[in-house]
Amino acid sequence: MSYSNYGSSYQNDGRNTLSSIYQSDNQNVDASGYRRMIRMAARMFYAAECPPLDKDPERDNPRSKISKLNTRGLGVIVLDYLSRGEWHEESNILKDLQVNQKLLRKALQYLEQEQVIQRYDKRDKRRKARAMGEEVDEFMSGRVSAAAAASLNGGSAAQAESSDDENDANRRGYLVTYFAIDYSRAHDTIRLKLHRMRAKFDGPKPKILQYVCHSPMCGRRTYSSLDAAMLLGSDGLLHCYCGAELFESESGGADDAGGG
Length: 260
Prior knowledge:
Elements: H1 15-25, H2 31-45, H3 74-82, E1 88-89, H4 90-97, H5 101-113, E2 117-124, H6 125-140, H7 146-153, H8 157-161, H9 163-172, E3 174-181, H10 183-201, E4 210-213, E5 222-224, H11 228-231, E6 246-248
Antiparallel strand pairs: 1-3, 2-3, 4-5, 4-6
Helix pairs in contact: 2-3, 2-10
């Protein structure tokens, strides 16, 4: 994957509207500090598959080509890209990152569900008009297919019946999707993830077993289960350095790893 040629990807015709929404949703945000936070969080929480395998049912389908593609690190790439500006058009993200479109949309949808990024859908009537003008030019130059020519000339009766729907779609214009980092919600999401990590580390510790050597040569030398890798013999038993077999201590576990 290549993600060179970074830059602001939102179009001039939507810049004022998008910027106003971005500013209203991210008031009192220190951009430089929050961008560093996003890049660090991306490497901490989203460096694996994006979306995770357990949240992508299509990955279990052996016939799916998507299941064979590696998405490890895609979340980091996407968040790094989005952190370099405000709003980015989806088509520009796809072009700059050179990622499979389906994979990119899955990653964007997952990050949106994580409340790290936000989306904005905008109807672009001028883009629709430009596309219609290109179709007319192609028709006039004889470079369109028969189906396209039929659509421009009115086509069949079935096409005539659907003309109202097409006109309505033309009035609405093309739907253009933009994405941006949602710094306010991302900050809360990252704090929650860190809190859960801290709670997990501060939770109950696993019991550490103690083992003792009964040989009088060692004077009842003791070991902990943390030393098991060094004490495991070829017979599958734990042995003291003197060669005698070790037995689990009757006193049970201990909080600290002991060793004689």
